[in-house]
Write a sequence for this structure.
C-alpha cells in the first residue's frame, strides 16, 4: 500500500515536471520567434497588403474601413469603397501600433506576439476547462508551438489568422462556461462574436457553430426538457449574430462567400475528403508539410493537392474514431461539443463550395475546430495501451514539429535576403533596386496627385507614401481577366510595374493595353531586377 502511494507520488511529480518543461519550452520558443522576427522583420501576404492600402487612405475617406482606388472610368480621380473582403483587425491593430512611432514591420511583430501569447494561454485554459490534465494540455500546447502555423506570422504576416488564433479559444471558453444557455448569455455571446469577426471574417461561422454545439453537448441532451430552451436561446443568439453581420458587413461589398468560382470536377466527393482531412491535418499543418514534400517547385512530384486530400480522409476518420472510442466515457460532453462544432463548420464550407463560392482549398479554414479536436487526440493516443497508437502519434507529431521549427528558420534566413522597405517589412516580390526606384518617383508636393503608380502586388504599393497608387495581382489573375480590365483617362505621370516573367506570357502586354488612352508604342521601359517599370510622362 505504501509502495503504491509512493509510486503515485513519483508519477504525479514526474507529470508536474514534464508539464513545467512543456510550458517552459513554449515560452522559450515564443520568445525566440519574437526576437528573430523583430530583428529580421516579416514579409507580408497580399491579402494584408490590400487592408493596409485602405488603412493608409483613411484620412481621405468618409468613414471607417473605406478605401480609395483610381476610378476605372477616369484614372485621374479616386473612388471610395467599403472594404468587405478582408477583416479590419489585420490592418487596424498594427496600424494603431505603428502610429505610436515605430515601423510597420515592428508593429506587426508586436501584434503577432501579443495574439500568439494570448492564444497560447487561451488554448491551454480551454483544454483545462474541458477536463484534460495539466500534462495532456501542456503536451498539446508544446506540440502546437512547434507547428508551422504557430510561427508563420513572425516571418510571413498572415493577418487575421493569428488574430483568430488569439481570440477564438477565449470565445469558446466563454461559450463552454455559458453552455447552460440562459437568456443572459445572449449579450456576451453576440459581443464576443463581434470580436471574432473583427479578427477574421470566418469568426462568424465559428461563433455560430460553437453556440450551436453548446446547446446540444450535454448528457442525454435529446431526452432533457431544458434542451428545447437551450436551442431557442442558441437560435436567437445565432439569429442576432447573422442579422447584425448581414446588415453591417455582408451587404456592403464582395466577400469570398459572395464571389463566384468553379465547382471542383469531383464535386462533393472531393469537398468531403478535403474538409474532413483538414479537420485532422490543420492543427499540425500537415497539408503544408505535404505540399512541401510533394509539390515543391524544385522537385514537384504531384501536380495538384487532390491526392493528398483523398489520402488524408481515411487517416482523419481513423483518428477521430479511435479518439471517440477512447474518450467517450470520460469526456463525453467534450466529444459531443467538439464533434458537433466541427460538423457544423464542415457543413458550412461544403455548402459554400457546392454553390460555387470562391473560398480557397486551404486547411487554415478548419484550424480552429482542428485545435479543439487536437487535445482529445493527444489524450487518446498518448494514454492508449497500444504501443502502435503511441508510436504513430509520436511519429506524426514529431515530423510536424520538426517541419514547423525548421521551416521557421528557413523562412527567417530567406527574409534576411529580401529587400526591406521604407515601412520596415520585407518584400518577397520586389528587389532593393525596385524599392529604391519607387521611392525616387514617389515625389511629394503638388505633383503627387498627378502621379499614379500601378504595382503588381498590394504590399509593394505600401512603399508609395505621396503619389496615388493602386495594384492588381497579375500572378493570380488569368490572362483573360487582365485583358478584360479597362482603365480610361490620363494622368501627368503613369508608372506601371510588372514582374519581368510576365513579359513572356502576355500578361504585361495585357496590363499596358488596359490603359486604353495611352498609346501602346509610347511606353518607356526601365528594368528593375525581377520587376520592369513602364512609364509615360506627359510633356
Amino acid at each position: 500500500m505504501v509502495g503504491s502511494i509512493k509510486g503515485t507520488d513519483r508519477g504525479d511529480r514526474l507529470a508536474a515536471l514534464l508539464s513545467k518543461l512543456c510550458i517552459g519550452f513554449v515560452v522559450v520558443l515564443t520568445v525566440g520567434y519574437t526576437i528573430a522576427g523583430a530583428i529580421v522583420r516579416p514579409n507580408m501576404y497580399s491579402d494584408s497588403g490590400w487592408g493596409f492600402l485602405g488603412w493608409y487612405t483613411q484620412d481621405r475617406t468618409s468613414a471607417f474601413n473605406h478605401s480609395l482606388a483610381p476610378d476605372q472610368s477616369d484614372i485621374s480621380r479616386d473612388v471610395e469603397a467599403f472594404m468587405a473582403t478582408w477583416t479590419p483587425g489585420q490592418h487596424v491593430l498594427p496600424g494603431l501600433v505603428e502610429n505610436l512611432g515605430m515601423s510597420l514591420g515592428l508593429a506587426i511583430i508586436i501584434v503577432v506576439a501579443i495574439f500568439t501569447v494570448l492564444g497560447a494561454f487561451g488554448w491551454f485554459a480551454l483544454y483545462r476547462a474541458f477536463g484534460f490534465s495539466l500534462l495532456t494540455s501542456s503536451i498539446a500546447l508544446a506540440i502546437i508551438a512547434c507547428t508551422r502555423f504557430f510561427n508563420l506570422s513572425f516571418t510571413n504576416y498572415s493577418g487575421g489568422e493569428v488574430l483568430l488564433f488569439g481570440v477564438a479559444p477565449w470565445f469558446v471558453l466563454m461559450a463552454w462556461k455559458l453552455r447552460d444557455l440562459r437568456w443572459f448569455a445572449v449579450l456576451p455571446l453576440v459581443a464576443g462574436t463581434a470580436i471574432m469577426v473583427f479578427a477574421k471574417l470566418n469568426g462568424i461561422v465559428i461563433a455560430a457553430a460553437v453556440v450551436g454545439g453548446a446547446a446540444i453537448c450535454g448528457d442525454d441532451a435529446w431526452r432533457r426538457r431544458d434542451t428545447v430552451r437551450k436551442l431557442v436561446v442558441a437560435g436567437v443568439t445565432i439569429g442576432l449574430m447573422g442579422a447584425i453581420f448581414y446588415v453591417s458587413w455582408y451587404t456592403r461589398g464582395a466577400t469570398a462567400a459572395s464571389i463566384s468560382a468553379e465547382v471542383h470536377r469531383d464535386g462533393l466527393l472531393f469537398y468531403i475528403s478535403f474538409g474532413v482531412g483538414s479537420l485532422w491535418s490543420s492543427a499540425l499543418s500537415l497539408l503544408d508539410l505535404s505540399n512541401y514534400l510533394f509539390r515543391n517547385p524544385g522537385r514537384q512530384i504531384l501536380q495538384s493537392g487532390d491526392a493528398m486530400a483523398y489520402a488524408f480522409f481515411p487517416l482523419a476518420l481513423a483518428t477521430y474514431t479511435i479518439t471517440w472510442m477512447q474518450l467517450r466515457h470520460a469526456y463525453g460532453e467534450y466529444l459531443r461539443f467538439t464533434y458537433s462544432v466541427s460538423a457544423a463548420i464542415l457543413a458550412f464550407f461544403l455548402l459554400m463550395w457546392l454553390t460555387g463560392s470562391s473560398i480557397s482549398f486551404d486547411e487554415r479554414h478548419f484550424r480552429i475546430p482542428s485545435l479543439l479536436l487536437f487535445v482529445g487526440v493527444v489524450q487518446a493516443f498518448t494514454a492508449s495501451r497500444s504501443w502502435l497508437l503511441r508510436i504513430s502519434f509520436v511519429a506524426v507529431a514529431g515530423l510536424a514539429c520538426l517541419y514547423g521549427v525548421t521551416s521557421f528558420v528557413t523562412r527567417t534566413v530567406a527574409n534576411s535576403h529580401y529587400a526591406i522597405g521604407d515601412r520596415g517589412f520585407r518584400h518577397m516580390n520586389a528587389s532593393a533596386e525596385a524599392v529604391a526606384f519607387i521611392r525616387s518617383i514617389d515625389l511629394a508636393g503638388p505633383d503627387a496627385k498627378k502621379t499614379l503608380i500601378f504595382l503588381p502586388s498590394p504590399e509593394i504599393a505600401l512603399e508609395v507614401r505621396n503619389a496615388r497608387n493602386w495594384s492588381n495581382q497579375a500572378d493570380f489573375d488569368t490572362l483573360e481577366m487582365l485583358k478584360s480590365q479597362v482603365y480610361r483617362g490620363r494622368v501627368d505621370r503613369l508608372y506601371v510595374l510588372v514582374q519581368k516573367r510576365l513579359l513572356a506570357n502576355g500578361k504585361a502586354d495585357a496590363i499596358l493595353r488596359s490603359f486604353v488612352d495611352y498609346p501602346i508604342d509610347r511606353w518607356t521601359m526601365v528594368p528593375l531586377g525581377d520587376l520592369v517599370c513602364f512609364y509615360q510622362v506627359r510633356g
Remarks:
- Residues 33 and 154 are 6 Å apart (CA to CA).
